[in-house]
């Protein structure tokens, strides 16, 4: 595949919800094999799989109890080996999720720590209560509640930044790092061609832990200097010597300067990073579990800030709207009811024509939406249930709390892939682990309008990234960033220019094209309405995207 990944596109499969071949109601690795022709036809290069390792599934596989295993619910190593082989026939490499910040409390390491073995107690971050009897620090868990839980009946508490069944590992212990490098190398030897490192920038907790002034604690453990040292060591000891392995780090609450360092090739750390600031523009006063219209000005500002900042430092962005932790972007930023095709393709255009590597999350290419479940009992996600209880405790009614859950739950993106109009959307012959969205009969891979039309548009976006270096390698600059309805930008490479206009609203709008980018030879490269000429006064239809190429 080569290390030149700038023209590549990654597709994310959430195995649990992709395709069930056994009737258990959960997707499996054989289902991934079965649908490889579908992915190959789309044109993707890397297939990122969420965790399928042995796990009690308290956090849908991100609570790993054995890194070098395959949960029998998903398959076995024979099936995995076949998946690697079959994918390679389509020139598709597998990218695996590596969860190296924490393990399940069912992991052998934690169980031995629980049994009192000092060696394994040093694998975790253990502290005694403060002198006044309070927890070791006042940090909050990312999933709500305190970030500490008692280690059995001992005097110690273990740090758990996520769920209490996910114990944070002590990276200061070199034996822990050796164990984790061995895990990564194990999967490299199985033929894996990419790694997505989960919450990698929070591994650098200080050895001296202290209360946080804000009572939350993110600043105490996020992007600390030692993280860069450890990521460089991870690079050197595992994937670094290979020129055909692509890496991406999920970076929680990070900033541009650290992200440049993580992804600049000269740093010998990672190839690219995920940042999430642009997906918090509908958080009222920074609180996820609230309702508000997205702040378009802030969205544009953040996209522009990260594009310009990463470009200036020779960093590289992973570009995305959707993943297994985010609500569906068309339900969030557009109007999939009245403009299903236009909404999905506009958002796709924005991301795929920016500087960086695009990621497609399963189902976005056919216009899948939030399911809008009618009861909290239909949701599975631990974070969602914790949030619902917290909202009720704040005095909200059940309907008020559910309205927020419907918009913000991680389960919005985890509903089963909608393959057909048949029962369970063709996902399973059994009872699905999570209910299929009720609109599956008119949104699925077999429906022409809108699903197939959206997918055809995605295929075009993937193809032009491979065909035009101005998209895969070109520079970025914004155009009229203060326009109330439109996000527009220019990509330039050599004598090639691409000018991109995106209307984020369900109404017609007009933008005056600056004279310095008004090229007479401009032709339409891609657009989601009928083709039009580049004119001084450009009229855009609801949720219209259009890109003009000049050479």
Automatic annotation (TrEMBL):
<dbReference type="InterPro" id="IPR045857">
    <property type="entry name" value="O16G_dom_2"/>
</dbReference>
<dbReference type="Pfam" id="PF23915">
    <property type="entry name" value="SusG_C"/>
</dbReference>
<dbReference type="GO" id="GO:0008788">
    <property type="term" value="F:alpha,alpha-phosphotrehalase activity"/>
</dbReference>
<keyword id="KW-0378">Hydrolase</keyword>
<dbReference type="Pfam" id="PF00128">
    <property type="entry name" value="Alpha-amylase"/>
</dbReference>
<feature type="domain" description="Glycosyl hydrolase family 13 catalytic">
    <location>
        <begin position="12"/>
        <end position="414"/>
    </location>
</feature>
<dbReference type="GO" id="GO:0004556">
    <property type="term" value="F:alpha-amylase activity"/>
</dbReference>
<comment type="similarity">
    <text>Belongs to the glycosyl hydrolase 13 family.</text>
</comment>
<dbReference type="GO" id="GO:0005737">
    <property type="term" value="C:cytoplasm"/>
</dbReference>
<dbReference type="InterPro" id="IPR006047">
    <property type="entry name" value="GH13_cat_dom"/>
</dbReference>
<dbReference type="InterPro" id="IPR017853">
    <property type="entry name" value="GH"/>
</dbReference>
<keyword id="KW-0326">Glycosidase</keyword>
<dbReference type="InterPro" id="IPR056300">
    <property type="entry name" value="SusG-like_C"/>
</dbReference>
<dbReference type="GO" id="GO:0005993">
    <property type="term" value="P:trehalose catabolic process"/>
</dbReference>
<protein>
    <recommendedName>
        <fullName>Alpha,alpha-phosphotrehalase</fullName>
        <ecNumber>3.2.1.93</ecNumber>
    </recommendedName>
</protein>
<dbReference type="InterPro" id="IPR013780">
    <property type="entry name" value="Glyco_hydro_b"/>
</dbReference>
<dbReference type="InterPro" id="IPR012769">
    <property type="entry name" value="Trehalose_TreC"/>
</dbReference>
């Amino acid at each position: 595949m080569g290390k030149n990944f700038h023209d590549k596109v990654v597709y994310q499969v959430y195995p649990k919800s992709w395709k069930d071949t056994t009737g258990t109601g959960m997707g499996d690795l054989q289902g991934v094999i079965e649908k490889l022709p579908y992915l190959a036809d789309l044109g993707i290069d890397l297939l990122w799989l969420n965790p399928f390792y042995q796990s009690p599934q308290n956090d849908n596989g991100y609570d790993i109890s054995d890194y070098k295993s395959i949960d029998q619910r998903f398959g076995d190593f024979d099936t995995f080996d076949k998946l690697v082989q079959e994918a390679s026939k389509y020139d598709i490499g597998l990218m695996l999720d590596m969860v190296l910040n924490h393990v399940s409390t069912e992991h052998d390491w934690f169980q031995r720590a629980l049994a009192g073995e000092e060696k394994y107690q040093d694998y975790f971050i253990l502290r005694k209560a403060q002198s006044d009897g309070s927890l070791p620090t006042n940090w909050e868990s990312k999933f709500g509640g305190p970030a500490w839980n008692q280690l059995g009946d001992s005097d110690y508490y273990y740090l758990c930044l996520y769920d209490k069944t996910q114990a944070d590992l002590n990276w200061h212990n070199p034996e822990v790092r050796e164990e984790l490098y061995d895990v990564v190398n194990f999967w490299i030897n199985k033929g894996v061609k990419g790694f997505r490192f989960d919450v990698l920038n929070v591994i650098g907790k200080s050895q001296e832990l202290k209360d946080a002034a804000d009572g939350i604690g993110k600043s105490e453990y996020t992007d600390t200097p030692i993280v860069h040292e450890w990521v460089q060591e991870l690079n050197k000891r595992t994937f670094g010597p290979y020129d055909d392995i692509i890496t991406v780090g999920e970076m929680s609450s990070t900033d541009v300067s650290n992200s440049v360092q993580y992804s600049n090739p000269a740093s010998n750390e990672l190839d690219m990073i995920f940042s999430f600031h642009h997906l918090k523009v509908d958080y009222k006063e920074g609180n996820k579990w609230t309702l508000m219209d997205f702040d378009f000005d802030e969205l544009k500002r953040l996209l522009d800030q990260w594009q310009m900042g990463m470009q200036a430092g020779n960093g590289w962005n992973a570009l995305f709207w959707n993943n297994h932790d985010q609500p569906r972007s068309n339900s969030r930023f557009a109007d999939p009811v009245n403009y299903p095709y236009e909404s999905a393709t506009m958002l796709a255009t924005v991301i795929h024509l920016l500087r960086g590597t695009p990621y497609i999350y399963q189902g976005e290419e056919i216009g899948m939406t939030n399911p809008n479940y009618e009861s909290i009992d239909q949701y599975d996600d631990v974070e969602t249930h914790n949030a619902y209880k917290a909202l009720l405790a704040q005095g909200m009614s059940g309907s008020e709390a559910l309205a927020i859950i419907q918009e913000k739950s991680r389960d919005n993106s985890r509903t089963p892939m909608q393959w057909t109009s048949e029962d369970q959307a063709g996902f399973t012959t059994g009872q699905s682990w999570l209910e299929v969205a009720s609109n599956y009969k008119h949104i699925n891979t077999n429906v022409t309008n809108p699903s197939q039309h959206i997918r055809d548009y995605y295929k075009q976006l993937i193809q032009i990234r491979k065909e035009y270096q101005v998209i895969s390698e070109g520079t970025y600059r914004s155009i009229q960033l203060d326009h109330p309805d439109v996000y527009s930008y220019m990509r330039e490479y050599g004598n090639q220019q691409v000018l991109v206009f995106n209307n984020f609203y369900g109404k017609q709008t007009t933008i005056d094209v600056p004279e310095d980018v008004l090229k007479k030879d401009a032709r339409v490269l891609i657009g989601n309405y009928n083709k039009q000429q580049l004119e001084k006064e450009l009229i855009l239809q609801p949720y219209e995207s259009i890109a003009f190429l000049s050479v």
